Amino acid sequence: MQDGFLTDRRKELEESFFHRLEVKQLEKMQQEQQKADRRQALKNASGIADPALLDKLLELEISPQTLAALTLTPLIEVAWADGKMEDKERTAILAAAEDQGVQKQSAASELLQAWLNHRPGPELMQTWQDYIQQLGKQMSAEEFTGLKLAVLHRARAVAEAAGGFLGLGNKVSKEEEQVLQKLEKAFTN
User: Fold this and answer.
1) Tens digits of per-residue pLDDT, 14-31?
2) Are residues 56 and 40 in the same domain?
């Protein structure tokens, strides 16, 4: 009788162990599938085919819904160049976001607000540069030049928004000028 009890108990423990193992494997497979689905959705929205860049975007919590905010990265970088976000810079960035169709109360708007309140890490700028390089491969030279001019124009407008003293003097700080040069360099292949 003791042997039957132990055999039954052993079977229960084995079944429980393998059930937990199966649940963990199933959860892992579901997580991998969700990541693949998010990667595919981002690929479709952005046109980016590079898996490493797509993974970087996902790590930064960039989704198809927040992709518009990523395109505002140059403006964020310029505004934070001197270590602080000026009210006029914030206003200029929010106006640019509205022009790009970033809706208030959207995921992109929430991400942008986070970047306005807390300076993002350098990995955001690196990911934006990788993104621009991928776009350059997919666009004609004329389209890419047009994009470059538009980005640099908006970034300079943010840099000039809070610059100068009483409207006089150089409106762009040395730090902001360095970021503007870095942005321009990102468009060279």
Assistant:
1) 777 777 777 778 788 888
2) no
Indicate whether 14 and 35 sit together in one domain: yes
Single pTM value for the model = 0.69
Place of tokens 């079977």: 11
Per-residue pLDDT band at 166 (split at 50, 70, 90): very low
Residue of 60, 10, 11, 68 lying closest to 38 (CA atoms): 60
Residues present in the chain in total: 189
Q: Are residues 15 and 59 in the same domain?
A: no
**Residue 179 one-letter amino acid:** V
Which residues span the domain enclosing 10? 1-46
Residues 178 and 93: their CA atoms lie apart, in Å, by: 19
| Tally of CA atoms within 13 A in the half-sphere of 173 that contains its CB | 18
* 57: exposed, middle or buried (Cβ count in 10 Å: 0-12, 13-18, 19+): buried
* Lowest mean pLDDT across 5-14, 116-125, 142-151: 5-14
Backbone dihedral region for residue 160 (phi beyond 0: left; psi -120 to 50: alpha; all else: beta): alpha
Whole-number Å distance between alpha carbons of 116 and 85: 7
Mean per-residue pLDDT of the chain: 83
165 strand-pairing partners: 168
